[in-house]
Specification:
5-stranded mixed sheet, 3-stranded antiparallel sheet, 10 strands, 29% helix
Length: 187
């Protein structure tokens, strides 16, 4: 999908709530005006894609314990020049968890959010605070797949019960604004 197709898809996207409406508008503005939005060269913010990976029973979500944030988190990552964000979400899910049997429940955008990222160290270098202009895709996977960690990014991977997700997430804003919304949108 090219930038133009992504813009069209996002323009057609119907926001779920006020947060999505506001964030959709800002992401569209960046997509239309920032030539480097798909790369980390866009230092103030750049495109990312996340995967909300549920099991076939719809009662668990596959998450990784993120080393930088010291919290269980969805999978996802930077576009790094790739304008096919569903492909980015699928690639990151496999890289971060080892999951092999994973499929989009639909190819459309499932959720829209702008995520503030605090300054942090990564691979021995300081990364300044910035924004992730994020699109989330709803994926389904088999619990039976063997999982593994990606040591440079996470220290655990597992299927977490959706009903108890708050017990695992140490980031109140992410839980309250994003994960609760994703669960509500599934229902």
């Amino acid at each position: 999908m090219s930038r133009e197709k992504l813009i069209l898809e996002l323009e057609k996207y119907i926001p779920f709530n006020e947060q999505e409406e506001s964030d959709k508008s800002l992401i569209l503005s960046e997509l239309k005006s920032n030539d480097r939005i798909f790369t980390r060269e866009s230092l103030n913010g750049h495109m990312t894609a996340s995967a909300w990976i549920i099991n076939t029973k719809r009662d668990k979500v596959l998450m990784a314990y993120h080393n930088i944030y010291n919290s269980w988190a969805w999978t996802g990552g930077h576009a790094d020049g790739d304008e096919e964000l569903l492909k980015v979400a699928l690639k990151e899910a496999a890289e971060e968890t080892g999951i092999e049997h994973i499929n989009p429940l639909k190819d459309d955008i499932f959720s829209v959010e702008i995520i503030p990222v605090s300054g942090h160290e990564k691979r021995g270098h300081y990364v300044s605070s910035h924004l992730h202009y994020n699109l989330t895709y709803l994926l389904e996977a088999e619990e039976e797949d063997e999982l593994f960690i990606k040591p440079d990014e996470n220290s655990r991977v597992g299927w977490l019960p959706i009903a108890n997700l708050e017990e695992y997430c140490n980031e109140p804003w992410i839980f309250d604004r994003i994960y609760k919304k994703l669960v509500d949108k599934m229902n």
